[in-house]
Amino acid sequence: MSRPVRRASVSIYCKIYTENFSQAMIDRYATGKEIYNFLLRDAKCCLPLKGDCNLWYLGSNEKFGHIIYNERVWHWSWGEASFDTVQEFIDAVYKDGLFTGRQYQKLSAKVEEGRRIGDMYLIGEYLSEKIKPSTKTSTERENNHVI
């Protein structure tokens, strides 16, 4: 007999532009997999580019938002979004056993990637740089390699 899928009360929201952030995870009971998929889902704020995951906007938006997980509440106001908050949320869900180790590691890596991007307005530039083919020759790459 399989064990029942655990769900948690969750609400994840932040204000982006004129209401571009998905409202799919507001005030619901969700599995760890549903939360994981939501955090990594494209926010579609950098079209036509793909890969601007919801998680990055939670940590870098300029306005306000909240993450509610069971009895824990993280709320931020104008200019207070932080990847520390996002990491605390991911830690709490993982500690409760709703994320697998692999999911936790992937989400934590996305948090670190978001920290490197820094500002939500730089996400599009970051994504376009990621997909841009290298124009350096192999000799130039070798000369730029730090030993």
Descriptive notes:
By secondary structure, the chain is of the alpha+beta class. The chain has one domain. Helices cover 42% and strands 14% of the residues. The protein is built from 6 helices and 4 strands. The chain has helices at residues 32-40, 54-60, 83-95, 101-117, 123-131, 138-144; strands at residues 8-14, 28-30, 65-69, 72-76. The chain has a 4-stranded antiparallel beta sheet. Helix 2 (54-60) packs across helix 3 (83-95), helix 2 packs across helix 4 (101-117) and helix 3 runs antiparallel to helix 4 (101-117). The protein is globular. It starts with 7 loop residues before the first strand and ends with a helix. The relative contact order is 0.16. Mean pLDDT is 89; it is low at 137-147.
What percent strand? 5-15%
DSSP helical segment count: 6
SSE arrangement, N to C: EEHHEEHHHH
- The coarse overall form would be globular
The side-by-side strand order for the widest beta sheet comes to 2-1-3-4
List key phrases describing it.
147 residues; alpha+beta; 4-stranded antiparallel beta sheet; 6 helices; 42% helix
Task: State the gist of this model.
With 147 residues, the protein is an alpha+beta fold. Helices cover 42% and strands 14% of the residues.
